[in-house]
Amino acid sequence: MSTTNYGDIIEVTAPADFHVHLRDGELSKLVTPHVHKGGFYLAYVMPNLVPPITTTEMAIEYKKRLKDYSGSSKVEFLMTLYLSDALHPSDVKNWKAAGVVGVKSYPRGVTTNSDEGIESYDKYDELFKAMEVHGIVLNLHGEIPSDHSKNICVLNAEERFLPVLANLANKYPKLRIVLEHATTAASVNAVKACGDNVACTITAHHLSLTVDDWAGQSFHFCKPVAKFPDDRRALQEAIKSGNKKFFLGSDSAPHPSLSKSTATATNGCAAGVYTSPILLPLVAHLLDSFGAIDRLADFTSNFGRGFYQIPADSNAPKVLVEKVQGVSVQAEYSNEWKTVVPFWANKQIEWQIVNVKE
What we know:
With 358 residues, this protein is an alpha/beta fold. It has helices at 25-31, 34-37, 56-70, 125-134, 157-171, 185-193, 211-214, 229-240, 257-261, 279-289, 296-307; strands spanning 9-13, 16-20, 42-45, 76-82, 100-105, 137-141, 177-180, 198-202, 246-248, 318-328, 333-334, 339-340, 348-357.
C-alpha cells in the first residue's frame, strides 16, 4: 500500500516499542499509562534511573511499579540492566527468569543519567561471553563522548562509534546486539554490513527531524541529535526496504516541561523527545508520508519481536489505525505533580487508533 485514502484501516498485532524511558516516581505514574494509550503492548524499558538499574532485584521492583502504574494488564514490560562493574558473568544465567532480557550500554556522559556509563568495553569480555550463552541482548547507545581535540561533537559522535559496533559484532558473533536510535546513513550502512546478530532501532522523531528542527527548539532536542536530510532519508529508506534488521524503538524520553523549555548560562535544557501517547498514529503518519505504510506492522511489531525471539501469540491484541482528516495532538499531559509536552503538540496527525481487539 504505497498510497492511502481517508478511511483506510491497517491492523497491527501487539505493537512493540523496543526502547522506551518510563522514569520513576511521580513522572513514571504520569507517563507509564501512555504506552497503552499510544497503542503499544510491549515496552522494552531503559535502566538509566537514578540510581541506575544494575541488579535483578532492582529490575523486579521497577517492573512491579510499572505494572502498578500501567493501567492495563495487557502491557508487557521487558527489563534491562545498566552496563557497569556491578554486573557479574556468574549472574547472567539468572537474568531471564527475573524478566531481564538485555543490557544497555551508555558511554559516559553522552545522554540523560549516563554519568556512570562506561569508558571501555574490554573489561566486559567475560560478561559478553556469558550473555552469548544465555541469549541476553546488548543494547548500545551508539555515540562516543565529545572530544574537541579529536574534532568529535554531537554531529559526528555516532559515526565515530561505528568501528566499536563492528568490532563487538565480530568478536562476539553469537551475541545479539542492537544499535539504538540510529540517526545517520553511516549507521544504516554499518548495521547492514554486520551479521545477522546485529539489528537497529529507529525512532519516530528521527524520521521527522533534521538539525534545523532542533537548533533553537528545545522540545526537539534529544541525544543523539537529529542530523542531515540525507541521513533522515536513509532511515526512511531502511524501513521502506523491508530490511528486518530495522525496527521501532521510540526512545520516548519524558522530562518535566520546565526542564525542556528552560536553559541557563550554565545548564542546557533536558535532552529527550516524548512520543509515547501518540506513538502508533505518529509512526503510521510518518511512514505514510514517505510511502512505507505497508511496512507499519513489520516496523512496529514483527521485526522487533523476531529479533528478540519473542514467540507469536495467536491471542495477542490487535490494534486498528485509520487514516483520517486530522487529529490534533494534545498540548500537554499532567497529573498533580508533573507536566510533559508531547512531540508535535497541537499539530495534526492523519492516523488514529479506532479499535483494539484484546
